[in-house]
Amino acid sequence: MINVYVFLVGLVLIVMSALLVNVPKFISWGSEKHGCRSQDAWLDIVPGSRKPINFFWASFTLLGSLGVLYISVSSYYGRHFFSLISSEFVVPFLPQGVTLTFYGIAGLFLSLHWWLLIFWNVGSGYNFFDKKNRMVCFFRYGFPGTYRRIFLRVRMEDIQSLILQANPNPEPSSGVLYMQTREQGTIPLTPVDDYYDRTPRNVIQKAWDLSRFLCVPMEIVPYS
């Protein structure tokens, strides 16, 4: 019975780790979109890692790993530290307690990774399109170090087209907007991992409005 319990705990942690990567694709928890535009300027604020879904999974992973570590510590000392729980249900330390310790430590490291992303707000920044000076500016926050602040400028004359990479359906249900340039190549305008505001209307409307603002063609290509 105990072996089955340890197996289920490990399975839950593995599934939880997989959900950290895949669930945001299907949960539409709104991340705030800010920006402003005028006749000669367009400013897009790009959200970073400080999104509700990231706070949820970071907290969920932290609490889950602490719970698993509590069970492993109880198995090491042979008793529970809360009187509400009977000591008859203590998990043997070898080998179940050791396995739970490994899962708990792994969960703490995973939670630490998410909290650091949130603290540094990796991926946040802005896109600024200035028609008056014929310049496009991109700014992003990265990891601490040499590339903590990433700044890129592109002349509007170098912009060849806008590319909307979307699902191969009659009407795209999600997508990522790119800018094709002569010197810098392809530059993503929307976060590649942002699954929160990709309804067909929002995706196509933003691409179409920006295409008219920059006076460049737009094309829709399927995911490769």
From TrEMBL:
Membrane-crossing ranges are 6-23, 55-77, 97-122
> Per the record, what is one GO cellular component?
photosystem I
Topological category with respect to the lipid bilayer: Multi-pass membrane protein
The record's subcellular locations are: Plastid thylakoid membrane
Q: Which GO terms describe its biological process?
A: photosynthesis
Which InterPro entries does the entry mention? PSI_Ycf4_assembly
**Per UniProt, which keywords does this protein have?**
Chloroplast, Membrane, Photosynthesis, Plastid, Thylakoid, Transmembrane, Transmembrane helix
In terms of Pfam families, this protein maps to: Ycf4
Q: Does the keyword Transmembrane apply?
A: yes
Q: Which family does it belong to?
A: Belongs to the Ycf4 family.
- According to its UniProt entry, what is the function of this protein? Seems to be required for the assembly of the photosystem I complex.
Listed name of the protein? Photosystem I assembly protein Ycf4
Tell me the organism's taxonomic lineage. Answer: Eukaryota, Viridiplantae, Streptophyta, Embryophyta, Tracheophyta
Q: What gene name is listed for this protein?
A: ycf4
